[in-house]
Amino acid sequence: MANGHPFVSILTPVYNNYEHLAECIESVLAQTYSNWDYTIIDNCSDDGSTEIAQSYSAKDSRIRVCRNREFLRAIPNHNVALRHISTESKYCKIVFADDWIFPRCIEEMVDLAEQYPSVGIVGAYGLQNHEVMWSGLPYPSTAVDGREVCRRLLLDGLYVFGTATSLLYRSDLVRSRDPFYNERNLHADMEVCLELLKGCDFGFVHQVLTFKRLRAGSLGSTTDELNTLMAGHLHNLVSYGRELLSPREFERCLETRLKEYYNFLAVAVMRGRRERRFWQYHRRKLNDAGVGFSKARVMRAMVARLGRALANPAESFAKLLLETERRRLGL
Predict the structure, then answer these.
(1) 10 and which of 38, 56, 118, 311 could share a cystine (Cβ 3.0–4.6 Å)?
(2) Which residues of the chain have a pLDDT value below 70?
(3) What is the CATH T-level fold of the domain 8-221, as seen in this structure?
(4) How far apart are CA 237 and CA 172, in angstroms?
(5) Distance between CA 75 and CA 219 in Å, rounded?
(6) Rounded distance between C-alpha atoms, residue 230 and residue 285, angstroms
(7) CA geometry: angle 244, 246, 251, nearest 5 deg
(8) What pLDDT, on the 0 to 100 scale, is given for residue 216?
(9) What are the extents of the domains in the chain?
(10) Closest CA to 169 of 96, 100, 106
């Protein structure tokens, strides 16, 4: 602890992010908070990212570059990164190589965590391209009961965790889990929040402190293509709902979630989605959740949608026009 300021470990897992990596690193160097070290984990990049990271490491002793011996998938690589946090650190912060953080990000997050020792995770508003994201907690809810935040997510869909770039973790919580993230879950950053917040509080800084970039070919674009969030929310409900909700709340939420899931699959059929990868993914996730995949329920959802369309043809035609225009614009 230097001058009373806790030590923070900052981590950036990188794979072929030549275009944006320097901007990410510069955002760390521009922090108003100075008591940190910074580890960049290079996942066998071959586009010049390695050289960019090493050029910064050569100029600043707080920065080190570690290169994986073999390529890893995204979530396992994030776990490797978190194994590099300093033994001296009280807090740790991931900043993805596509993203960057505003100059007061770490200072504001650490200040809040220091005010509330019960807080294990700190979040904040973030920009996702041009949109402010991850809102929902009323001001000035700076330290919120962790279990209540989890209940709000399961019951109301209130999502305030953002991405790993949006969060500051208490380092002892990270050290208590190995692997930190569930490597079978694309949305492991959301799942780990539910797991940790059963035993600690959630802090939130009501400022925009992080930036998330959406780009083709990123993990985010894959989740959008398959709508993996649908499966992620079902996984969380099945895994944590019985502990965090009453039996009646759980059953109601499960039925609502399954209705939404099968409505989504019915729409996919009606729009002609036939990709094997898409259907294998959702069949597997429904089976993994213990609820199974039902063709009959997909058909019932299709019939219900067609019934609503026939009952209100004007609204259905307007939605069709809107969807056609959305596709034309690539939105």
Answers:
(1) 38
(2) 1-3, 215-222, 313-331
(3) Spore Coat Polysaccharide Biosynthesis Protein SpsA; Chain A (3.90.550)
(4) 26
(5) 10
(6) 9
(7) 105
(8) 64
(9) 8-221, 227-329
(10) 106
